[in-house]
Amino acid sequence: MDWMMYLKVFFVGGLLCALGQLGLSLTRLTSARILVIYVTAGVILGGLGLYGPLVDWAGAGATVPLTGFGYALSQGAKKAVQEHGLIGAFTGGITATAAGIAAAITFGYLFALLSKPQTKM
Exposed e or buried b for every residue in 96-119, given b needs 16+ CB within 10 A? Predict the structure, then answer.
């Protein structure tokens, strides 16, 4: 076991989550806005080549949070543009993240069927 990798994953993933929580607690940002900020930051940093080294260093600590989804979108778009030209900018990100999107829809649907939703008061 590589304990150092576990520490890096925990540190980076925890830091990203803590920053999001600080954004919720200390500002008027909503969770939806933080989601958009994280995905957009992942796309921009991935497109500029700045997020890749963090992914290489921290692994799942950088790919599992929402910034990792944005990074995957940017990498898929870059690859598709190289293969298919301009149309790849529109199709590559969805192709690269299709498995994660399908899993989110499937598990969301299953949990909706199995749970008893209640209104929060």
Answer: bbeeeeeeeeeeeeeeeeeeeeee
Domain count, the chain: 1
Which pLDDT value is given to residue 51? 96
Q: Which range marks the domain in which residue 40 is found?
A: 3-114
Q: What pLDDT digit, counting tens, does each position of 49-103 carry?
A: 999 999 999 999 999 899 999 999 999 999 999 999 999 999 999 999 999 899 9
Give a yes or no: residue 121 inside a domain.
no
Query: How many Å apart are CA 117 and CA 1, to the nearest integer?
Result: 41
1: number of Cβ within 10 Å: 5
Q: How many CA atoms lie within 13 A of 30 on its CB side?
A: 2
Tokens matching residue 20: 């999001």
The amino acid at 51: Y
pLDDT of residue 93: 93
Round to whole Å and give the CA distance between 121 and 118. Answer: 9
27 part of a folded domain: yes
